Every structure is written in structure tokens, then in C-alpha cells.
Amino acid sequence: MPNERALMASNDLNQLLRSLPSVEEVINSTEVQELISLLPHDIIVAAVREELDETRRAIRTSHADRQYAQQLRETVAARSAQRATKLLKPSLRRVINAAGVIIHTNLGRSALAEEAVHAVQEAARSYSTLEYNTDTLSRGSRHTHCEQLICALTGAEAAIAVNNNAAAVMMILSEFVAEHEAIISRGELVEIGGSFRMPDIMSLSHAFMVEVGTTNKTHPSDYQRAITDNTSMLLKVHTSNYRLIGFTESVDSKELKRIAQEASAKRGEDHPIGDILVYEDLGSGALLSLPGFGCEGEPTAGEALKRGCDLVSFSGDKLLGGPQAGIIIGSKKLIARLKSNPLARALRLDKMTLAALEATLRLYLEPERARREIPTLRMLEANAEKVRDDADYLAKLLQQKLPADCVFIDVVEEVSRAGGGALPMRDIPTFAVRLNFVRGNAQDCERFLVQECPVPIVGRIKQESLFFDVRTLLSRQEADEISQQLIRYFQEDMK
Ligand SMILES: *Cc1c(COP(=O)(O)O)cnc(C)c1O
Predict the structure, then answer these.
(1) Cβ neighbour number for residue 85 with a 10 Å cutoff
(2) What's the angle, vertex CA 422, arms to CA 416 and CA 425, rounded to 5?
């Protein structure tokens, strides 16, 4: 027997659904009419339809809560208007990073140096020498703009820059390994932040992956035994976002080169594959050694090449501090093959990125200047005294401006991270401004700072407190902005 109550609920529900306004009615509401001059009619109609569909779905699933369903019905016009106006507002926006992660992948990794920003503007605003050779007054190549600089900075013979390091890995494997074997240690089969998995990239480029060793230990003999007539590469991958500690062993690229040479020498001159290559995917790939980071620092790209790699690749927007790119260095002969691979066309850099990369690389010609002007390097190397000063500045500002009975403010020692898979084991000591809430709370304030501020502010929550790590702020002006928005938060909370 049907439950009488359920029947009533279902009658209620149908009645509610029937009482929803029509598309026409919603469009004629004052909320939506205000948008008529701002947006194309079709877009408004589509937004209203979507909102009505969603409202119907929500009412059907909320029959236990009649009041809520009623509320949905009454606010459908306002929500339709909101949905449509989303299109008018920028989605990719500036953010203030007070989270203390320097190469924060979710927040765009590296902020560019002013020189690079200027170069991007010039390239964007006007025609450029992108593929025009002014010496010969004829067609040029976009690869020339950065190649000489990369070679000068790494000691490489030749170089090419592509869309990102994932693209670089794929291109190298497709060109030199496809249908052949690449040998890789089980300790280096990494996954790097969302969807870059070494085994997947391998199969995408039709490379046969030969895993050797164990998760914690791989010996030279593991590689030696795995080499066959079909082997074309020994591949080394930087373990970026994790470290094996304890009972571990891996084979460095110098040793890999020795193994490759020995095996290649046994192959005759007319071997169909030729010599076995050693390639290292460095991940972050610094161009300068970071003195403050001692032996935990990252090897520079030039050092990796000198150790004996035939090819090295690394990202443009990690420790290098430039735009998204993947840089490959090696011999003239190998890089020439990559340049003529069809993937080079599909994965090429656009003019704005090239402009930013060239300008960033040029700063490295004067290492001190690079350290001063490239935000990623500046943040990594900022000393405790400077960071403490910045934290004191923000704390004082907040102590002066925020109502004393609402929040306790102090400066505490904290830890920043390099991020982007660089220096994963390194705690970078920093100072953060800590807010302990008497009114409101850390979660609520965090939401306000992200969702209700013109420029979202990303801090960090720990034990019911909200922290602002000043190491990742780009300027004192950002500290001023944090203060202004916190004033607003407490004002709204008082109402
Ligand atoms: C980050 C990283 C990549 C991917 O580089 P993108 O520039 O993000 O494409 C590949 N390999 C390693 C070891 C990395 O750390």
C-alpha cells in the first residue's frame, strides 16, 4: 500500500515544480532585465534555462525540506542573473600568494620578472621578429631567439624550447625511442602532480619501457643486464616531489653514460639503432646553484650535461622562474633531429612565451641581477632578516587596523616550501603572521579572502589559526591589500 505521507510529499513536489516561473517570466524579472544591455540575448536565455533545470533537479532531491525548495523557487531569477554575469567577469585573475609555497602549481608557478613582463607586452602588442631574420631579410626560425642564450648559460652545444617539460619528455621519447626500449629504474617511475606519469608518457610515445631494480635500490648491473639489441636509451628521471631515504641506491648519470658507452662500443658500426643515449629529465632544472641550499640544492642543467648526459630537459617555470616551457639541451646532431620532428611544430612555443623566456634567460647573464629580479629566485633566497621585517610590517599594520577584541595577531616562525617538485625535503625557514580569532573563525575568514575579495588572497590554516607567509608576497603593497581586505572582513562580521 502506498505510503500516504510519501504521496502527499510527491503532490507537494509536483505543485512546487509546476509553480516555477517560465523562462519568459524569469527573463522579464528585474534582476535579469538589468543584464539585457550587457549580454547577448541567447546567452541570457541559456543561463535562465540552465538555472531552471538545476532548480528542478534540486527541488526533486530536496522534498524533505519544503522551505528550502520554496526558497529555490523564489530566488531563481537572481541566480539566473548571477550565472549569466559570470561570463562578464575574468576567471583567470591575479591572486595574492600568502601560502608560502613558492612554485605553487595551482597559482601559476612562477611570477615573471618585470623585464619578462615588458617583453611579453611588446610581443603581444605589435608585430615581431618571431620568424623573420633581419640579417638576411628573409624567413627565420623561432627557435633562434632562445637557443644561443640557453647554450651560453648551460654550456650545451644546442637547445630547443617547447611547450613544457612534459612535452619535452614526450618529444624526446618519440624521436629517439619509439618502437625501441628505454631502461628506467623502478625508483624513478614517478607521477608528478595531476596526470604526468612516466609510464603513461612512455606508452604515448610508443617507447617500450623496461623497468629495472627495485623501488629503493637500483645497481649499475641492473641496467647492464637489461640492455638488449633493441635498447636505445637509458633514462633518468628526477624524483621531484618525493625522496627515498634510508636503505637506497641509485645510479647517477655519469655511471649511466659509462654503461651506455660500453654497450654501444660492442655494437657494430652498422647497428640499426646506433649508440645508446643517456637522457635525464631534471624536472625543475636550476640554471644557478642556490648557495643557501647546500647539498640539498638541485643540480644545475649545465652540471647534468657535464656528468655525461646526451640530453637533459627541464621546466621553464619551476626553479628557472620564467614562463611555462620545456627546455631541451644536448648536441647539435640530436637537437637537429628534434627540431625536424613533426611534434616540434605541434608543441612549439608562442611568441609571448618566447619573449618571456628570452628576457628571463638574459637576466641570468648577470647572476646577481637574476637573483634580484626573478621573483622565484628572490623568494627562495630571501634571508630570515628580510622575511622577518616583512612579517613585522604586516603584523603592525594589522594590529593598528583590526579591532583588538576580535583577533590576536603575532609573528611566528614557520616553514615555506619551494614547491613544483623542487627541493622537496627542504624546510625553508620563514616568518608568518598568525591570526587567532575571537570573533569569526579561520575557515570563514579564509573563504571570505578567496571568494569575496577583488583579488583572492590565499593563506594557510593550521590549528584553527590563519597564517600569512610573507615570503611569497611580491611586494609590500600586497601586504597592504591583505590588511585592507581583513578590515572589510571584520567590518562585515560586526554587522
Ligand atoms: C615537473 C616535472 C615534469 C613536468 O614538467 P612541466 O613543465 O610541468 O610539464 C616532468 N618531469 C619531472 C621530473 C618534473 O619534476
Answers:
(1) 16
(2) 60
With the most atoms of ligand 1 within 8 angstroms of its CB, the residue from 169, 192, 204, 317 to mutate is 192
**How many alpha carbons fall within 13 Å on the CB side of residue 205?**
26
Tell me what the mean pLDDT of segment 190-202 comes to: 79
Mean pLDDT of the chain: 91
Cα 239 to averaged position of ligand 1 atoms, centre (Å):
10
Backbone angles phi and psi of 137, in degrees to 5: 55, 35
Q: Which amino acid is at 186?
A: R
What grid cell was written down for 156?
650545451
| d(CA 285, ligand 1 centre) in Å | 10
> Which residue lies with its CA nearest to atom 1 of ligand 1?
283
42 pLDDT band, cuts 50/70/90, is: very high
pLDDT in tens, 249-296: 888 999 999 999 999 999 988 899 999 999 999 998 899 887 766 546
- Which residue's CA is the closest to the ligand 1 atom numbered 13? 283
Phi, psi for residue 380 in degrees, rounded to 5: -60, -40
b/e 198-213 (16+ beta carbons within 10 angstroms → b): beebbeebebbbbbbb
The model's pTM: 0.91
Which residues line ligand 1 at a C-beta cut-off of 6 Å? 164-166, 169, 192, 196, 237-238, 240, 281, 283-284, 315, 326, 421
